Amino acid sequence: MTTVGIAQILVFFGLVLLATKPLGAFMARVFSGERTLLSPVLHPLERLIYRFARVREDEEMRWTAYGLAMLMFSAVGGLVTYALLRLQGILPLNPQHFTGTQMTPDLSFNTAMSFMTNTNWQNYSPEVTVSYFSNMVSLAMHNWMSAATGIAVAIAITRGFARHNTGALGNFWVDITRATLYVLLPICFVLALALVWQGAPQNFSPYVHATTLEGAEQTIAQGPVASQEAIKQLGTNGGGFFNANSAHPYENPTPLSNLLEMVAIFLIPAGLTHTFGRMVGNPRQGWALFSAMTLMFAVGIGVCYQAEASGNPNIARQDIMVQATDTQPGGNMEGKEQRFGIPASALFATVTTSASCGAVDSMHDSYTPVGGAVLLANMMCDEVIFGGVGAGLYGMLMYAIVAVFIAGLMVGRTPEYLGKKIEKYEVRMVIVAVLILVASNLLFTALGASLNVPPGQSPVAITDAKALPASARWNHVNNSSPSLYLGATHNNVNNPGAHGFSEILYAYCSPTGNNGSAFAGLTGNTPYYNLTIGLAMLIGRFMMIIPLLAMAGSLGRKKLVPASAGTLATDTATFAVWLAVVVVVVGAIEYLPALALGPIVEHFQMIGGQLF
Questions:
Q1: Beta-carbon neighbour count of residue 471 at 10 Å?
Q2: Beta carbons within 8 Å of 130's beta carbon, 6+ residues apart
Q3: Which DSSP helix (H) or strand (E) runs through 77?
Q4: What would the mean pLDDT of 190-201 be, rounded to a whole number?
Q5: Measured between alpha carbons, how far is 290 from 385 in angstroms, rounded to an integer?
Q6: 400 with 289: CB under 8 angstroms?
Q7: CB–CB of 15/351 below 8 Å?
Q8: pLDDT at 239
Q9: Can you tell me the distance from the alpha carbon of 75 to that of 67, in angstroms, rounded to the nearest whole number?
């Protein structure tokens, strides 16, 4: 770790911290229907949308109606996207003449579910698969829709905590309209212009054919990149215009654009914590949530950066200098972007897996075992370390209920949170949401690891890696010693052993957490993976939202309970630390055995000299 690297991390988080309060206060006014600086320009357009859609701004919904509206909105969007992808060959803005041949039925299903759920997992190479029309209308449309949906749900759940003696949580159609017009649109407009300034293209030109200095022919993709990149990062979507995602110089041209994109990923999730505090009438409650998120993020980036800066100890044992100097970066540079180096790459990876964004500027498959474990652990915490737009806030509120419930059991009192008694129904809804997520991650992983085994092999078997077919060997190390062989076959997983298992585990933790990033060693574009990963995305999105909306509806109907000497203070630093501990302990209970089979085993193999 270097002073410059640490300074980059501090500058990044300083910018996020500076933006949290003003943006959070602005969103609180927006979703409370108050006048803002943008109202003179946007309010007439907002009223026009309500009139066209026949929405009554003052008509509110109970949690059941709110949830049904959210489900129908998402379902219609998913069906339209599936149809447009299958029909892209007859639609306009298709200079490369892509057809439904590139978007098969199973891949179209996976892609439609991916963008509908704010996951943006991509089992295809965008620049050779989807047209400009598909990128802008079929896919980028969901970058707005799914992001606005997440924000709307977070605001509805916040109202459940803020209100009393009412079951109304607001109006879904009003909330997504305001999220789009007042929050996403203005920031994206500014960010897109900044990216064009830094060098990202924004055009509809055909692909450019060029001849390199060596005489080789090269095709250079073009397109409306900057606008999609802006909403991709701000909406924590993560789906790239190019296969290399934010490692591509068109998507992420400079170190400054890299910084702006990372700040954009955390901007709304961080701001929503302050919005929560404002709406419940106690900003300190929002700062407590923000502090818990910050504590977990700080630990994650510290461990990940240290692991990548240290690199593989086997290299140092060969008398090769691995320390950073003025002329070489040191550490583990495999899979890293040369323009950004280890600090910015590790920071981007930690940010994107913390915020359920999924954009990448380095290849996670090439991280050290400990570095990769941090990225997995971020998603295994149910994406509450700032999390996705909206999803991070309501995910952390889910764990806040768990935290006050456990604290209540410890002192023998009925738990309370924000003046509401937390009773059996609320705890049940939270536990349902938590268990559904862990079940999706582990059951799909177990099934994938069991089915991806060659004939004659058991799911877990010790074998000599040299005896494996070349397609199943470790693809970036000389694996000359016996290795644990898990699910590395049928060309679906390129690496055997613990790393192969980690690839399968990551492939389901990422979609269930609606993250969308990948270890990239897994060949996911098969009917089996397209179907099961698509189902994991749906489970991770909607089977979490529905129980939490039910919980919010129940809380909104409760009466306020006066605070007493035995009431747990939830707006203090002590509670923030307790909340972070609860998230980590619950995640460890759920996932430590799986991590032990993957990155933990791989780490001990590495320090024992087996992975070199």
A1: 14
A2: 85, 88, 98, 102, 103, 124, 138, 139
A3: helix 63-86
A4: 93
A5: 9
A6: yes
A7: no
A8: 82
A9: 12
Do 211 and 219 contact (CB within 8 A), yes or no? Answer: no
- Residue 494: pLDDT band with limits 50, 70, 90: low
- At what angle are helices 255-279 and 283-310 packed, to 10 degrees? 150
**42 half-sphere exposure, CB direction, 13 A CA radius:** 18
**DSSP at 558:** S
278: left (phi over 0), alpha (psi -120 to 50) or beta: alpha
One-letter amino acid of 365: D
**DSSP per residue, 421-436:** E--HHHHHHHHHHHHH
Take residue 568 and report the two structure tokens written for it.
């747990």
Q: Report the distance separating Cα 553 and Cα 570, nearest Å.
A: 21
For residue 452, give every residue at least 6 positions away whose Cβ sits within 8 Å of its Cβ, in sequence order, or none: 487, 488, 489, 490, 492, 493, 504
- The identity of residue 369, as a single letter, is P
CA–CA dist 436, 452 (Å, integer) = 24
Strand residues in 59-159 grouped as ranges (E): none
In the DSSP assignment, the letter for residue 127 is: G
pLDDT digits (tens, 9 = 90+) for 405-426: 998 888 777 788 988 898 899 9
Res 610: pLDDT: 63
Q: How many CB atoms lie within 10 A of CB 189?
A: 12
Pairwise pLDDT comparison (476 vs 118), residue with the higher score: 118
CA distance 186 to 193: 11
Helix (H, G, I), strand (E, B) or coil at 604: helix
Between the alpha carbon of residue 48 and those of residues 8, 56, 85, 574, the distances in Å are 44, 12, 30, 47
User: What is the Cα–Cα distance from 164 to 238, expressed in whole angstroms?
Assistant: 37
Q: How many CA atoms lie within 13 A of 204 on its CB side?
A: 8
Residue type, 278: R
Distance CA 293, CA 300 (A): 11
HSE-CB at 237 with a 13 A cutoff on CA atoms is 31
